[in-house]
Amino acid sequence: MSFIKKLNAAWASSNSLLMVGLDPDMPRLPAELQGKPDAIFQFCKQIVDATAPFVCGFKPQIAYFAAERAEGQLEDLCAYIRETYPHLPIMLDAKRGDIGATATQYAREVFGRYGADAVTVSPYLGSDSVEPYLEWNDRGVIVLCRTSNPGGSDLQFLVTDGVPLYLRVADLVANKWNTNGQCGLVVGATFPNELAAVRKAVGDNIPLLVPGVGAQGGDVKATCAAGCNSSGTGMMINSSRAILYAKGTGHWTDAAAEVAKQTRDDINAHR
Q1: Among 36, 95, 200, 261, the one annotated catalytic
Q2: Which end of the chain has a smaller Cβ tally under 10 Å, C or N?
Q3: Cβ-contact 44, 81 below 8 angstroms
Q4: What is the pLDDT of residues 42-98, one digit of tens each?
């Protein structure tokens, strides 16, 4: 099943637009896991098990694994999700951007080694840096467009022929790169006006990965109003830290599950 079909099925079966980001920060892991050789895998696995009923997919951030020499644990985690929750897509957050020959190897890493359903990439090097990912035509390629960080405005708001660069990227992806119907865009929840502009520009069929809800302060109501398509779907609204490191009176997995459920329900109330 292609990424887009899998995502559409997950939106329906889970009744959720929530995607949980898996960003395992070693100093913040629970005391019971500290010092264990597979601590990162165990932490993420338990988060996955706790939140799976409330999500449309999972988004491991590769840097958190690579920095701890835990790529093997990332492989194990992706395999676990594929085997245990085959209906939920895995998006590897890598933000890759390099020339064609190198991009080909990155694509092999993401889709071959880790078996991810989709990957985030940078458009800055142009079409030949993205084509090696598009050759895996059953996988998703999610292109940075209007990112949630304040510094994104340094480049993304630059105007060319009267159009800001982020809308140039949106148009390029929707009308030139998306020949196989496998592309999406990253647009932050912290910028709802730009999110609405992107949705208007690309129409209903381009899925949007929307980080910034939760710890970054993005507003769920404004995000849904700006980014949902006419079917009330069309977004993967990502939350990471607010769920991973949730505080509660019980076990940490119960706290994570509760915040995931609350976030899912909050999103559903506004779409």
Answers
A1: 95
A2: N
A3: no
A4: 999 999 999 999 999 999 999 999 999 999 999 999 999 999 999 999 999 999 999
